[in-house]
Structures are given as structure tokens and as C-alpha cells.
């Protein structure tokens, strides 16, 4: 007789089977509790949306430059119109007085007309850059005294004003350039293009120095700024002097004001970088290209600028440098102390900004270190 013992055997096997360890039970339980799935990053056509956000922030800088450059250059240069352009009529007669008043009344606000008694006096006022032009009519001819060294465009505007008057009276018309521009600077704008080279070289150098300022430290950052501004000015003077002869003599004088101008830009760039970061180049372009070249007087003198840029011309550093360089090059013996003062103030602002942002950066680092130390102490106490 056979006996079926399989159920008994199964019960014995189950009873003899060792119980799982607690960690194995926990592990098994963890498999039963499925974790909540996190949603993946949002995408657009397979590309994460964060990439497009980062690109949008990055492209703001070139878009700002495109809008700013277009607005600045077209706003300043698209329609030069004279306002209070200083001119004179040479003569002392009542007829001369009436003619000067009539000329002023024809277009109110365009010309600032006065009379001077002699041609010599008119020449002196042009050499002092008090007058843009002086009209000298006689019974048989008409002469216009101008200075292309001061501004060729202003001289051209004055010629357009007085040439029709001479022709209407059937007088031979002659233009006399009292202070001409240099032999190798026929347009009189060579110093302006030298300003462009100085400015671009300076703010590009500022970006390079600012990138290493944290590792250089404040002392070496300032020393490097001083040295590099001299190098940038030296390169510009070498190109403008020995190579193209835009500057004939006076190289050291113009180099000195160029060094001071460049130093201000570099220090301002170094000072702004800890605050603006990747917007620093855009800010420097705004200050030293968009607003600088348009208000400097290199293309159109202040009496042909729109009011906004004419206002900037009174204190902006590019206008100060160009006026000082023109005085040294073409009007020796005349004062330019106010220009040096303006350039010095810009350099002082740059130095102050650099020192201020350095102190703020040190304070920010110190506070961050203190927070880390506090968290470590709290972790030790909690343990």
C-alpha cells in the first residue's frame, strides 16, 4: 500500500526554509514601492527649452549693439544742421551791420553772426576757434576765411552759406584756409580716426585685463592698466606718426593725452566687469563708441550736432581728447587745460570704480565664507 506524503514533505520544506534577513525584506519591500517618476526637461523639436532660454539671453548683447549703433550713428550724422554757427562779417560801416543782421534773420538759430572791424582780427578769432568763418566783401571781390584744421565740414557749411551771396552780387569768390589741415590729412579727420583706434584698442584691452583681474589682484590690475594704456597709445601714435604722418611732430604731447584717455577706458572696464560680467563689452561699446564718436566733433563740429550729442560734447572724454590733440597739432600755444582736466576726471572715475568694485567683491567673498563656516558649525552641533 502506498502512502502520499508530498503535502507533508512540502510543509516540512517550508518550515525548514530559513527566514529572510531584515535587510533582504527591506530590499524586497523597496522593489514593491515604485518611486515617482520625474518629468523630463521640456523640449522643443527635441532640443531642451533651457538651451533656447540661454541663447535668448546671449543674443541680447549683439541685438543691443545693432540697435544702439544704428540709433547713435544715424541719430548724430544723418542730417547735420547748423545751430548758432559762429561766423562774422568784416567791416565797420552801417551797411555791414545791416547785412549781418539780415543774414542772421534769414534763418533764426542757424547762424550766430557778428561783425569784426579788420581782417587781422577775423583771422585771430578763427585761429582761436572762436569763429568758424569770416566773410570779407569788397567792391570788387568776396573772401571767406575758414579753418579746415578745426573742422572741414563746418568750413564747407560756411561756404554754402556765403557762396550764393557773392554770386548774387556778381563778386569773385575766394576761400582762404587760415589754419589748414596737415599735408597727409587732407580731410582734417585723421585725428578722429586716431581716436577710433585708441578707443577700440583701449576697451578691448579693458576686457582682457578684467578677465584676469581676480587672479592678478587689485595692485597688479591697476599697474597692468597703466602700462597697457601706454602701450595702446604708443601703437596708435606709431601708426599715425612715423607710418602715415597724420601727426607731424608733437608725438609725445599727443601720446600723453592719448595715454590718459586710454587709461580711463581700461580702468572703467576693469571696474565694471565684476558688476556687469558679459555685459561689460556692450557697456563699453555704448560709452566709448556709440556716444563717444558721435559727440567727439571729429565728423561734425558741435554747432552741427543734434542737441543731445552737443550736450555730451561738453564733458565726454573723446571730445576732450580730440580737442586737446587738435590744439597740440594745429593750434600750438593755445590752452587746453580744461581738456586735460576732463580726461583726468574720467581716469579718476575709472580708478574709483575699480577700487569700489574690488572692495565689494572682497566683502561678497567674505560673507560667503562666513556662511559656509556657519553651516559647518551647525552640522557639527547637530551631529
UniProtKB/TrEMBL annotation:
What are the record keywords, sorted? Membrane, Transmembrane, Transmembrane helix
Segments carrying the region annotation (Disordered) are: 1-42
Any keyword Protein transport?
A: no
Native organism = Frondihabitans sucicola
Q: What is this protein called?
A: ABC transporter permease
| Bias kind Polar residues: ranges | 1-13
So where does this one cross the membrane? 51-76, 191-214, 226-247, 253-272, 284-305, 340-361
Q: Which domain of life is it from?
A: Bacteria
Transmembrane recorded as keyword: yes
Amino acid at each position: 500500500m502506498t502512502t502520499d506524503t508530498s503535502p507533508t514533505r512540502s510543509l516540512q520544506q517550508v518550515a525548514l526554509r530559513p527566514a529572510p534577513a531584515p535587510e533582504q525584506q527591506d530590499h524586497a519591500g523597496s522593489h514593491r514601492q515604485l518611486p515617482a517618476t520625474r518629468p523630463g526637461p521640456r523640449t522643443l523639436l527635441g532640443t531642451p527649452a533651457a538651451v533656447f532660454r540661454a541663447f535668448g539671453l546671449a543674443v541680447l548683447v549683439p541685438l543691443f549693439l545693432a540697435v544702439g549703433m544704428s540709433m547713435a550713428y544715424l541719430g548724430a550724422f544723418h542730417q547735420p544742421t547748423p545751430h548758432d554757427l559762429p561766423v562774422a562779417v568784416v567791416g565797420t560801416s552801417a551797411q555791414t551791420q545791416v547785412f549781418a543782421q539780415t543774414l542772421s534773420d534769414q534763418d533764426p538759430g542757424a547762424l550766430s553772426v557778428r561783425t569784426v572791424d579788420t581782417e587781422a582780427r577775423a583771422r585771430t578769432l578763427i585761429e582761436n576757434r572762436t569763429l568758424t568763418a569770416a566773410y570779407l566783401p569788397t567792391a570788387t571781390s568776396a573772401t571767406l576765411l575758414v579753418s579746415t584744421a578745426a573742422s572741414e565740414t563746418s568750413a564747407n557749411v560756411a561756404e554754402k552759406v556765403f557762396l550764393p551771396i557773392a554770386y548774387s552780387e556778381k563778386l569773385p569768390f575766394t576761400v582762404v584756409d587760415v589754419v589748414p589741415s596737415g599735408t597727409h590729412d587732407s580731410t582734417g579727420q585723421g585725428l578722429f580716426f586716431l581716436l577710433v583706434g585708441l578707443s577700440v584698442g583701449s576697451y578691448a584691452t579693458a576686457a582682457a585685463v578684467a578677465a584676469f583681474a581676480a587672479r592678478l589682484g587689485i595692485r597688479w590690475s591697476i599697474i597692468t592698466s597703466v602700462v597697457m594704456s601706454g602701450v595702446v597709445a604708443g601703437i596708435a601714435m606709431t601708426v599715425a606718426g612715423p607710418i602715415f604722418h597724420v601727426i607731424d611732430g608733437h608725438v609725445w604731447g599727443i601720446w600723453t593725452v592719448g595715454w590718459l584717455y586710454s587709461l580711463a577706458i581700461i580702468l572703467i572696464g576693469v571696474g565694471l566687469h565684476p558688476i556687469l560680467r558679459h555685459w561689460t563689452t556692450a557697456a563699453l561699446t555704448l560709452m566709448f563708441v556709440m556716444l563717444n564718436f558721435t559727440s567727439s566733433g571729429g565728423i561734425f563740429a558741435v554747432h552741427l550736432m543734434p542737441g543731445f550729442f552737443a550736450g555730451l560734447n561738453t564733458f565726454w572724454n573723446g571730445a576732450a581728447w580730440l580737442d586737446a590733440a587738435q590744439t597740440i597739432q594745429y593750434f600750438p600755444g593755445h590752452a587746453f587745460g580744461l581738456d586735460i582736466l576732463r580726461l583726468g576726471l574720467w581716469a579718476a572715475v575709472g580708478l574709483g570704480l575699480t577700487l569700489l568694485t574690488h572692495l565689494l567683491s572682497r566683502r561678497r567673498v567674505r560673507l560667503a565664507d562666513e556662511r559656509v563656516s556657519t553651516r559647518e558649525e551647525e552640522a557639527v552641533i547637530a551631529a
